[in-house]
Design goal:
By secondary structure, this protein is α/β, with parallel strands linked by helices. Helices cover 31% and strands 22% of the residues. The chain is globular, with a radius of gyration of 17 Å. The mean pLDDT is 96.
């Protein structure tokens, strides 16, 4: 049984190009208004599901944070979903802020929490919208005119430099490159596309009002820390962001879907550090 006072499954937050997008909402006990964490799953932009954050929904709601775990459009061979997937995440933020009063949520205390490909989407939505990028694509959305800015960003084993990840995927799986499927072209055809889709490009002074927590495992063999999290963290520091790290010893890629209370859980190690960050910055 959920420890949240209420769990609402399949809450529709927008319809983009005929695709109905939904999320699962976990609401804490009490009237609120509660801070909220919007969770964006990973899966290489072509797989995964919002249920991957189910443990976090219960866990954070029991500690006073509303949680909205969202679905977004996935890519497939011949079907790119950039920038559409970013627009989906932006719409989720606008929905939560637009419905904040009815949901008992504090509209000024919104965080994005993404894992792997979800961290890339969260970072683009969280940082890009500070300077009015990735907004306005769907003026028919009920909450299209609502601000999409967030107060905090949590990225876990994320992709922040798309050109570097394209090259890494080519080494690991040359027959099908997930970055290229998502973006619709290789970097040698469109360097600008890779620059604009990289969160690293938005680690600039103008966007530094967002507090950032980055986490990664020391044994990640899919997304290489030296090419992704570490350079992104350095860029954030250089641009004056409040940024902290949580390095998880012996953790591979993909562990945020693990039970948090399980013995020796990597998520269990991360949880108190995440809660401390949220308590201080959200």
């Amino acid at each position: 049984m959920s420890e949240a006072s209420e769990t609402r499954k399949g809450v529709v937050y927008c319809n983009h190009d005929g695709v109905e997008l939904a999320g699962d909402l976990y609401l804490p006990k009490g009237a609120g208004p509660h801070p909220v964490v919007i969770c964006v799953h990973g899966g290489g932009w072509r797989a995964g599901a919002r249920g991957a954050f189910g443990h976090w929904g219960d866990h954070l709601a029991a500690r006073g944070y509303a949680v909205f775990t969202v679905s977004y459009r996935l890519s497939a061979p011949g079907k790119k979903t950039y920038p559409q997937a970013v627009h989906d995440v932006v719409a989720a933020v606008q929905f939560i802020r637009g419905e904040a009063k009815a949901l008992g949520i504090d509209p000024e205390r919104i965080a994005l929490y993404g894992a792997s490909a979800g961290a890339q989407l969260s970072a683009l939505a969280g940082l890009g919208t500070q300077s009015d990028q990735f907004i306005g694509a769907y003026p028919q959305d009920k909450h299209a005119s609502v601000s999409a800015k967030v107060k905090a960003l949590i990225g876990v084993f994320g992709v922040y430099d798309m050109a570097a990840q394209w090259l890494s995927f080519n080494h690991q799986s040359p027959r099908e490159n997930g970055v290229e499927l998502f973006l619709g072209a290789p970097p040698m055809d469109d360097r600008k596309l890779y620059f604009e889709s990289s969160p690293l490009s938005y680690a600039v002074t103008a966007n530094n009002k967002v507090a950032v927590l980055l986490s990664w495992g020391t044994e990640d063999d899919l997304v290489w820390v030296k090419e992704q999290s570490e350079p992104f963290m350095l860029a954030l520091k250089q641009a004056g962001f409040f940024v902290r790290s949580s390095i998880v010893q012996a953790a591979p890629h993909f562990w945020t879907s693990d039970p948090i209370d399980e013995p020796n859980s990597f998520s269990g190690f991360f949880s108190p550090r995440l809660l401390r960050f949220l308590g201080e910055r959200l």
